[in-house]
């Protein structure tokens, strides 16, 4: 038993050191919390080595179709969100989506003068979170069973709301229950992708502006705020994914024919680097692009490039489509060059249109954090918006490249 505890402490220190080395933990307060909280207390049955890896999710719960509805998140994602939140001692914090571990980390940071509430829609997860918090000695955390679409009014107002489930929108309750200068950290889904965004609010201004955003993904929100994406199959293994509010339509038979043609490749002469930033630029700066997705089988049969496995923005024009690829090129700073592959009768033209977009990003925005993201709730003036924006149920999300 003592050996187990010693092992856990050693593994925990190694986890924190790795997260620091990767630049994901940047403050002493987050490092101290992650060193203090026994993560294994929240993941019964999981091997210690796995518990303290930085990119592993734990104790998944699956629905009837085998999809994950809950996990204890990977520690690298938790580190990113905690750093984004800039939680300080004495704050009142709401965590949306429970597991217990992250709530315990927040409780460590806010200390005895602060308070933490965590809410989950699933009674099993609430029970498990409570048990873990008891085991680890964080019984002061309020654990609530509810649909977080409506927040948790009884412990509001919150200085920070940390959302640990994939949200498609920012419901009014979250803003009503946030202090006037509070911050919401939320994995927001838009244009077929998710970004972990830290939104700040200024007193007397209903508009939320993002202080930073990072790559990351979460299980989707259930309950009143659930949102489905559109999936348009081209073949059983290849499809286009669109936001639920997208009006785009496609000539599927023509695209299916295009998939069977020999594609044309062209190269941009710009480095392949920060693909998540390029992806965001392509999706929020110009014509609306769907995300092209493929099953492993389509990659194995060379129907599509392997970049499509995790999804990539595609420029679709009639029966032609193009998407970005990469190749090794030692002359590029990153050692790789971005290119384009295009299928269909207009492959050359559509490929060159996408190359121009890639070069525009490389020429003007080749850095982290170049996008300016803002969310205007419906209580603000949402008329007259220019630039890329998408209308959600409770507000408008806008992305500008300045
Ligand atoms: C990734 S897990 C949370 C992980 C947790 N924060 C931790 O400590 O690692 C996401 C959770 O959100 C919950 N959830 C989904 N929709 C919800 C909703 N509408 N309200 C509250 N919880 C929800 C799921 O049941 C799931 O347990």
| Count of structural domains | 2
CATH architecture of the largest domain: 3-Layer(aba) Sandwich
| SS class | alpha+beta
Major sheet characteristics: 10 strands, mixed
Q: CATH superfamily of the largest domain, called what?
A: Vaccinia Virus protein VP39
* Counted beta strands: 19
Envelope shape = globular
Detail the poorly predicted runs: none
Q: What's the alpha carbon Rg, rounded to whole Å?
A: 22 Å
Strand order of the largest sheet: 5-4-3-6-7-8-9-17-19-18
Helix content: 25-40%
Strand content: 25-35%
Organism: Micromonospora inyonensis
Family: Belongs to the methyltransferase superfamily. L-isoaspartyl/D-aspartyl protein methyltransferase family.
GO molecular function, one term: protein-L-isoaspartate (D-aspartate) O-methyltransferase activity
Keywords: Cytoplasm, Methyltransferase, S-adenosyl-L-methionine, Transferase
Description:
With 402 residues, this protein is an alpha+beta fold. The protein folds into 2 domains: 57-225, Rossmann fold (3-Layer(aba) Sandwich), CATH 3.40.50; 230-364. The chain is built from 11 helices and 19 strands. It has helices spanning 2-21, 28-36, 48-51, 75-85, 101-110, 123-136, 172-176, 252-259, 275-283, 296-300, 347-364, and strands at residues 58-62, 68-72, 92-96, 115-120, 142-145, 158-163, 178-190, 193-202, 205-215, 230-233, 238-242, 264-271, 291-294, 312-317, 320-328, 336-343, 371-377, 388-391, 395-401. The strands form 3 sheets. A 10-stranded mixed beta sheet has the order 5-4-3-6-7-8-9-17-19-18, with helices on both faces. Strands 10-11-13-14-15-16-12 form a 7-stranded antiparallel beta sheet, with helices on both faces. Strand 15 and strand 16 form a beta hairpin. Helix 2 crosses helix 5 (101-110). The structure holds S-adenosylmethionine (SAM). S-adenosylmethionine binds next to strand 2, strand 3, helix 5 and strand 4. The site of S-adenosylmethionine has 29 residues, from strand 2, strand 3, helix 5 and strand 4.
